[in-house]
Amino acid sequence: MPKKLSDLLASRELQRWRLLLGEAAESRLGPLDGAARRIDHALEWLYGRDPERVGRGERQGGLGSSSLTTPGWISAIHQLFPQQVIERLESDAVLRYGIDEVVTNLEVLERIEPSESLLRAVLHTKHLMNPEVLNAARRLVRQVVMQIMARLNHTVRQAFSGTRDRRRPSRLARASNFNFKHTLRTNLQHWNPQRGKLYITSPKFFSRVKRHCEKWQLILLIDQSGSMVDSVIHSAVMAACLWQLPGIRTHLVAFDTSVVDLTADVSDPVELLMKVQLGGGTRIAQAVDYARQLIERPQKSIIVLVSDFYEGGSTATLIHKVKQCIQNGTRVLGLAALDSRAAPSYCHDTAQALVNVGAQIAAMTPGELAAWLAENLQS
Question: Which residues form the VWFA domain (predicted)?
Answer without folding.
Answer: 215-374
